[in-house]
């Protein structure tokens, strides 16, 4: 149990920090698949978001800057929360940890009439990889710690 707690604490300490987007693959195809207009896709693709992740006890806070509308949200693992996504969609999120040989933060995002995206957040040193899957479309966004 102690190894599990130490591993989880080390993961959470690794998540905390400020990150910026360095590259992305297939992001426009994902935005098209979720129904964003060409104009909204063009804006989203041109932005370089900065993300500040903080954890206080069991409360996680994410601050997004450098996008058309700054966004802050707070969540607790395993607890459903509602928010407005940066693209304007009203979504319901549930975040949880997936624990195997490496811990990953898993985000299930739902909206509209049963639309669902699965987002896997993988942290490795100063690098954060976000893999988003919606239907048969997958995009990957790479962030680096500031």
Automatic annotation (TrEMBL):
One Pfam family hit: Lipocalin
Record-linked InterPro entries: Calycin (IPR012674), Fatty_acid-bd (IPR000463), ILBP (IPR031259), Lipocln_cytosolic_FA-bd_dom (IPR000566)
Coiled-coil intervals, chain numbering: none
PROSITE patterns per UniProt: FABP
UniProt keyword list: Lipid-binding, Transport
Tagged with keyword Mitochondrion: no
SUPFAM superfamilies: Lipocalins
Domain named Cytosolic fatty-acid binding proteins: residues: 17-34
Domain of life according to the entry: Eukaryota
Family: Belongs to the calycin superfamily. Fatty-acid binding protein (FABP) family.
Protein name (Swiss-Prot/TrEMBL): Cytosolic fatty-acid binding proteins domain-containing protein
